[in-house]
Amino acid sequence: MENKRSSFSNTLGFVLAAAGSAVGLGNLWRFPYLAAKYGGGIFILVYLILAVTLGFTLMITEIAIGRRTGLSAINAFQKLDKRFGIIGYLACAASFIITPYYCVIGGWVVKYLITFLTGNVVAAAEEEYYNGFITGSAEPILWFGVFVLFTAVVVMIGVEKGIERASCVLMPVLIVLTVAIALYCVTRPGAMEGVKYYLLPDFSRFSATTVLAAMGQLFYSMSLAMGTMITYGSYMKKEDNLEKSVRQIELFDTALAILAGFMIVPSVFVFSGGNEEALGKGPSLMFVTMPKVFENMKFGSIIGTVFFLLVLFAALTSSISLMETNVSIVCDKWGWSRKRTTALTTVYVLIMGAVISLGYGSLNFIRILGMGLLDFFDFISNSILMPVIGILTCISIGFFIKPQVVYDEVEINGEFKVKRFYTVMLKWIAPVCLILIVLFAVAEAAGWIQV
Ligand code: PHE
To answer: What is the pLDDT of residues 85-97, one digit of tens each?
Structure first.
């Protein structure tokens, strides 16, 4: 007897699970930092325009491919056209590369949550605390392991009972906590300056790099070009409205990114007296600057604990989707059972992640293209593989497989309202934008341009 494919039980379950995948570390620290850096309101505006054009196009395409074929990336592309199975393999590579390092950062979040829970706010606010922790050996690997096990258990349980149920609990809590902290942060004395800085457009900072940075952020944030949305689409019921669901997922993802900015930018502003350096790049914003902010805030230890709890929830629903992407590709391709595949994937993630984690400590002599291990894997997956997969997806569907497959899928639930617009985006505008992202990433890595 053929195995019946699992599915999300209804539209809400699907939307919450897909939004759970989309809303993650990318929304919570990367978006606020980029918005602050690239001119506040103007970055947000550019991002919003890109979300409803480019983001919409890619997301509806991927979910439609998944639902149409009922398969994950490799088999889905092969089923549509034998020649394009390669796109699925690339997506598979990307998701296998991202999962371990995403979980390493997830482990850091667990550590900070525990630190805040046990009242060590003062210690956490020290720069050395962060450096001492991530350069260690056993401790970061331990918390990483805890995070991976949480993820694996949910994936092992399955689509409806595991992923859907986890998302339906975690996502509403996440929204409530984010809104509550954002409200608390913007009402602190002096926060309005930060809100202005965050929202008012600074046109002098607008440039082509603003658009390119927004585009890169968009794809990552919406979990596109990794096979994730294809996999989730394959679990979507035919009676759920595709176009509307995509709009809802996008709204969710973008709203949470903007709200995260309200939590972070004004707080950092109050704490640093308007010194923009404090909004420094990368994980240090979340793990060094934010604890300092909480240390100086009234009720900071409580707010800090809640903050890391919500970051943990966001990271978990994303890592679940990443592991699910890997697992469903292997199950579909090689016919293995979910249990066995999840167990083996977990072993792989644990080994790779441990190596990546040690990349900050005893293995920090390993440098590839001048980057440490985590940065290198991030670069390969997000800056190279992701846009390449995006380009190939647009071209293969736009010109060879033909957009009709997407139209058909969308039209199961009524009229495809923006069909013409979608087609132009898919065939022409999206590929050009994606090519620019790759060129930009390569130029940046080679040091030709400064970002
Ligand atoms: N979208 C997630 C985030 O914003 C990351 C992610 C990328 C998850 C690709 C799944 C697939 O953090």
So the answer is: 999 999 999 999 9
Q: Would you state the pLDDT for residue 445?
A: 81
Task: Please give the distance, rounded to the nearest whole angstrom, from the Cα atom of residue 102 to the centre of ligand 1.
Answer: 9
pLDDT(283) > 80: no
Give the span between the Cα atoms of 289 and 112, in whole angstroms.
13
Distance CA 246, CA 55 (A): 9
Residue 136: pLDDT band (50, 70, 90) is very high
Question: Which tens digit of pLDDT belongs to each residue from 370-412?
Answer: 899 999 999 999 889 999 999 999 999 999 999 999 999 999 9
Pocket test for ligand 1, best of 90, 108, 321 (most atoms within 8 A of CB): 321
Name the H helices within 81-200.
85-117, 121-124, 127-134, 138-157, 165-186, 191-199
Amino acid at 94: A
User: Distance between CA 285 and CA 282 in Å, rounded?
Assistant: 6
Write down all domains in the chain, each with its CATH number in brackets. Answer: 11-445 (1.10.4160)
CA-closest residue to ligand 1 atom 7 = 223
Q: List C-alpha distances in Å: 112 to 26, 124, 129, 263, 346.
A: 18, 8, 10, 17, 23
Task: Check pocket membership of 216 for ligand 1, CB cut-off 6 A.
Answer: no
User: Nearest 10 degrees: CA dihedral of 421, 423, 424, 429?
Assistant: 110
- Helix (H), strand (E) counts: the chain: 24, 0
Ligand 1 atom 10, closest CA: 223
pLDDT at 272: 81
Q: What is the mean pLDDT of the chain?
A: 93
Strand-pairing partners, residue 371, are 368
Q: pTM higher than 0.85 for the full model?
A: yes
Least Cα distance to 18 among 180, 175, 246, 205 occurs for 246
User: Which residue's CA lies nearest to atom 3 of ligand 1?
Assistant: 24
| C-alpha 358, offset from chain centre | 23
The one-letter code for the residue type at 336 is W
CB of 29 closer than 8 Å to CB of 283: yes
d(CA 16, CA 29): 21
Q: Which of 221, 250, 323 to mutate to test the pocket of ligand 1 (most atoms within 8 A of CB)?
A: 221
